[in-house]
Amino acid sequence: MTSEKLLQARRRIETAYSPEAVRQLGTRLAERLALHLRQVEQGQGPVLNWRAPEENIAAAHRTLDGDVPFSHGIGDGPAGGADGLVPRFEQLIETALSRCQNLHHPGYIGHQVPASIPIAGLFDALGSITNQVMAIYEMGPWASAVERALVERWGTRIGLQPGEFAGLITHGGSLANLTALLTARNVVLDDVWERGLATGTGESGVSEANERSASLSHASQTATPAPVLVAHSDAHYGVTRSAGILGLGTEQVLRVPLDDRRKMDPERLDELLVRLRSRGVPIIAVSACACATPIGAFDPLPEIADVCARHEVWLHVDAAHGGAVAFSERHRHLIDGLPRADSFICDAHKMLFVPALCAFVFYRNPKHRFETFRQDAPYLFDPSAPGMAEFDSGMVTIECTKRAAAYGLWGVWSLFGPELFGDIIDVTFATARRLYEKLEEAGDFEALHEPECNIVVFRYVPNAGPGRDLTDRELGELNRTIRRKLMESGEFYLVQTTLDGIGALRVTVMNPLTDETHLDRLLAAIRRTAEEILSQG
Ligand SMILES: Cc1ncc(COP(=O)(O)O)c(C=O)c1O
Q1: pLDDT score for 495
Q2: Which residues contact 253 (CB under 8 A, 6 or more apart)?
Q3: Long-range contacts of 384-388 (CB under 8 A, 24+ apart)
Q4: CB-based burial label for 465 (10 Å; 0-12, 13-18, 19+)
Q5: Burial class (CB in 10 A: 0-12, 13-18, 19+), 93
Q6: DSSP per-residue codes, 49-101
Q7: 124 lines ligand 1 (CB under 6 A)
Q8: What distance in Å separates the CA atoms of residue 400 and residue 403, rounded to the nearest whole number?
Q9: 112 lines ligand 1 (CB under 6 A)
Q10: Looking at the predicted structure, is the pLDDT value of residue 7 above 70?
């Protein structure tokens, strides 16, 4: 490299690292975000800025190519460089804001991703800009401390005994379920971590491995039946995916029948476990829900825990959505029995309303967290200070480098106190309940269940005009078309689902700013959209 080129490189780097640039651009960003939130939170503009993926990808390429010249200022030294960056920085922010999903719009009532508490994002930025990471305590001492304290606080609030349990934070509910089920697999199958599934619990070699991969129907005829995972029939797809990743096989997930409120039926669970135990089938875990994704049904955990205890089976609970009710006096009864689970997961980036991703795994027995990965990594974990491994997150998480995922949660909890989380749960659950009542009062809507939380599934069922005599299939199609049109219009963002084979609309109140007036507008918008669709034939 010529010395001139090297000099240029150094100047560009200097601008990129300029504290003055952080100050200037940070101030602009904060001002622009405040304006954006002011508008969006009042319902101005669309919820989703709908554009086809191809169009957005092309636009993304244009920004990467510098659709405005991006040489201004670069190389002029830190102060001049920062000034020069402002116009392009502002343009990039405008591009992002004009093409995003506006979760803070009260018409956002879609997936289980919240209109996050905006201030939490500022704490996340603190962690990101200073690049606090974990794996080992030394790399992110405050991030590690915050994580440990939050695990202790949330677990205790759920009902675990202080000092007698363990937990960790990972990148999302799917990874959290996988981590906990991996732990269960390793504990239940003893030396599987070292020897692999193919060698199984017996003495065996290849022929036995083949037998072990046979389906349950063949299991009773084999020496060592293939292990199974027993799951809620409505379990999140990540649970089945975990069975695939863990080498159990997705077909080895046995579904427990549900009762008429889509909750796991403890009696049917008991019958299934009796059958499996009598055949000597290894059971990795029973995976229950608090709550299940489709309609937000909370399983009867005390009864399920009794059944699992009777059969000495590991109980795992996916409380990704519902674990947060521990913060609400009014709703915490929904997770009675959760502390009896061997493992469970809770997503802070769902009902604690912090930005993604911040998922917690809890183990009732603190020793179990070291069963997930029984590995030595001498370059990371220092044998001269063995006690420190206790605080090294890399010992217990799939991630090696892990971002400071809990900064947002730690920040808002410390600023507002945990009451804020209870407030948001109470308000969003009450809004969902109000929606249900409105659906029940209306003659042309059908609520498909009584909500236990902030999830409501329903259908528009025209009771007059051309839509009056639609078949179930046509009704499902009509509801799906309504939702697509509403989404593309930007008026509301809700989702579609299928319940009992028929299309339906699904609302999750994930924005505490959504209120009754928005619900009235929603029902009116659905009726209007249906009329337009039906009048076009
Ligand atoms: C019950 C349940 N478990 C797990 C997940 C997956 O969580 P994540 O999206 O954080 O991976 C979801 C997502 O909605 C869920 O509803």
Answers
A1: 96
A2: 228, 229, 230, 231, 235, 239, 240, 243
A3: 388/136, 388/137
A4: exposed
A5: middle
A6: ----HHHHHHHHHHHHTTSS---TTTTS-HHHHHHHHHHHHHHHHHHHHHTSB
A7: no
A8: 10
A9: yes
A10: yes
Give per-residue pLDDT as tens, 242-267.
999 999 999 999 999 999 999 999 99
Q: What is the 3-state secondary structure (H, E, C) of 239-288?
A: HHHHHHHCCCCHHHEEEECECCCCCECHHHHHHHHHHHHHCCCCEEEEEE
- Distance (Å) of CA 331 to CA 17, 493, 509: 48, 26, 16
The confidence band for 67, taking pLDDT boundaries of 50, 70 and 90, is low
Q: Whose structure tokens read 């947060």? A: 324
Residue 454 near residue 510, CB atoms below 8 Å: yes
| H-type alpha helices, 312-363 | 348-351
The predicted pLDDT at position 128 comes to: 97
Cis peptide before 358 (omega within 30 of 0): no
* Closest ligand 1 atom, residue 291 Cα: 1
* SS3 annotation, 9-21: HHHHHHHHCCHHH
β-pair partners for 347 = 359
Total residues found in the chain within this entry: 537
The average pLDDT across 223-229 equals: 90
β-strand pairing of 359-363 with 402-403: unpaired
Q: At what angle do helices 266-278 and 301-311 cross, to 10 degrees?
A: 10
Q: How far apart are CA 293 and CA 174, in angstroms?
A: 13
Separation between Cα atoms, residue 120 and residue 387, nearest integer Å: 32
Contact 21, 78 (CB under 8 A): yes
Instruction: Give the model confidence (pLDDT) of 321-367 as tens digits.
Output: 999 999 999 999 999 999 999 999 999 999 999 999 999 999 999 99
Ligand 1, atom 16: closest residue by C-alpha? 293
Cα separation, 396 vs 187, whole angstroms? 14
Q: Which atom of ligand 1 is nearest to the CA of 112?
A: 14
User: Cα of 120 to ligand 1 centre, how many Å?
Assistant: 20
* pTM metric for this prediction: 0.93
Shortest-distance Cα residue to atom 4 of ligand 1: 173
Shortest-distance atom of ligand 1 to CA 177: 4
Mean local confidence (pLDDT), 507-518: 98
Instruction: Give Cβ neighbours of residue 96 (< 8 Å, ≥ 6 apart).
Output: none
